[in-house]
């Protein structure tokens, strides 16, 4: 028999959502911020001499070099980049940010979502039974339920992180790699959502759509009864009815009721 369109939609959307959520979980761009640093040094080129009569003697001032500091954080990793030097360093999350219970909650929800979505995809594949004429609709629907639950869990994790985005790890915002040693200090940054969050939102919504489509596959297709076969129920083996099978515009299904 033909695979129902809802099953096809679900089996396509569910893995796509899984890939997007997995990509979001492993990339360190859940939040980002930037700050400009002004650096002076004896090796900096001198400025022009001050104009006469300005109240100060002639002399030189060290030039100020402006550097852009970019900070990004994810669930497992943080990164620091200096522009325009393109110097970038990443390290596993440490300090108050790593110990924040809201971050731990988001981690647990995302891991649970990935596990449930993978399990749901396996069940949906078994339920489709492309090698057989009759799909296991109950198994496919159970897989869809797990995929929907996975999408809701990842949406919850994203909501928790986004709601507390600027407050995660504020106990010691100056911690960096190698905390406890010579960890670099950087100024307080105004943090905002980054690209990984958008990947996560998109993937979670696709998971919910795919799981919902698989849930709809639990409904059996309706096959009408005719006067030639009045004993046929609503879900018959339609090809056993000569009148229906002889009609060219009628699709023939073999169903297990």
What can you tell me about this protein's structure?
With 257 residues, this protein is of the alpha+beta class. The protein is 42% helix and 13% strand. It has six helices and five strands, in the order H-E-E-E-E-H-H-H-E-H-H. It has helices spanning 5-26, 95-99, 101-128, 137-163, 195-216, 242-245; strands spanning 31-39, 65-73, 77-83, 87-92, 192-193. Helix 1 runs parallel beside helix 4 and helix 1 (5-26) packs antiparallel against helix 5. The longest helix is centred in the middle third of the chain and has 28 residues, at 101-128. The chain is elongated. The model is unreliable at 43-62, 172-184, 225-245 and 252-257 (pLDDT under 50).
Strand content: 5-15%
- Which runs of at least 5 residues are low in confidence (pLDDT < 50)? 43-62, 172-184, 225-245, 252-257
End-to-end span in angstroms?
Answer: 14 Å
- Broad shape: elongated
Task: Map the helices and strands.
Blueprint: H1 5-26, E1 31-39, E2 65-73, E3 77-83, E4 87-92, H2 95-99, H3 101-128, H4 137-163, E5 192-193, H5 195-216, H6 242-245
Antiparallel strand pairs: 1-2, 1-5, 2-3, 3-4
Summarize the structure.
By secondary structure, this protein is α+β, with helices and mostly antiparallel strands.
Main features:
disordered C terminus, five-stranded antiparallel beta sheet, elongated, alpha+beta, single chain, 257 residues
